[in-house]
Amino acid sequence: MDDVVKVIALIRPSSSISLIKTTTGGEIIEKNYSHDDYVRRGEVLLRIDVASDILEFDNSKKLMKRIDDTIAVYNALTETIKLNKNSAISSSSEAYSRSEAYLIERNKLDLFGNPIKDVVQN
Fold first, then answer.
1. What is the pTM of this model?
2. How confident is the model at residue 15 (pLDDT cuts 50, 70, 90)?
3. Tens-digit pLDDT profile for residues 83-122
4. Looking at residue 87, what is its pLDDT?
5. What is the 3-state secondary structure of 13-75?
6. CA 31 remoteness from chain centre
7. What is the dihedral of CA 69, 71, 72, 78, to 10 degrees?
8. How far apart, in Å, do the first and last CA atoms of the chain sit?
9. What pLDDT is attached to residue 69?
10. Which among 41, 55, 78, 112 is least buried, having the fewest CB atoms inside 10 angstroms?
C-alpha cells in the first residue's frame, strides 16, 4: 500500500528555470532580484565581492614584473658573452653587476689558463 502525504507545492517546468553562472567566485554582497521576478538580458542580478581576485591580479602583475626583470638580466648577460664587453645600460642594475662578474672571471681564465678550454683542445 502507498503512503499518501498532502503538501502545498509549486510545480514549474524545467524550461522556465534559468541557471546563473559566474566567471569568478566570492561572497554575494548585493542581490538585485526577488523570487519570481522577471529579469531582462543584461540586467545586473548579483554583485560579488571580488577583493580576492583583485589581490591575485595584483600579485600576478608583480610576478610578471620580476620575470621581465630576470629576462632583461639574462638578455644583457647573453650580449656580454657574445660581445665580450658589458652591454648593460645602467651601472646600478643587476645586469651590469652580473655582466661585470662574468667579465672578471673570464679575464682570470684568460690570464691564468682555462682548464676547460685546454681539455677541449686536447
1. 0.57
2. low
3. 999 988 887 789 999 999 999 999 888 888 766 655 545 4
4. 84
5. CHHHCCCCCCCCCCCEEEECCCCCCCCCCCCCCEEECCHHHHHHHHHHHHHHHHHHHHHHHHH
6. 31
7. 150
8. 99
9. 92
10. 41
Mean pLDDT of 61-83: 93
Domain boundaries, the chain: 27-34+43-121
Cell of 97: 653587476
Q: What CA–CA distance (Å, rounded) separates 105 from 81?
A: 12
User: How far is Cα 95 from Cα 91, in angstroms, rounded to an integer?
Assistant: 8
7 Rama class: left (phi>0) / alpha (psi -120 to 50) / beta: beta
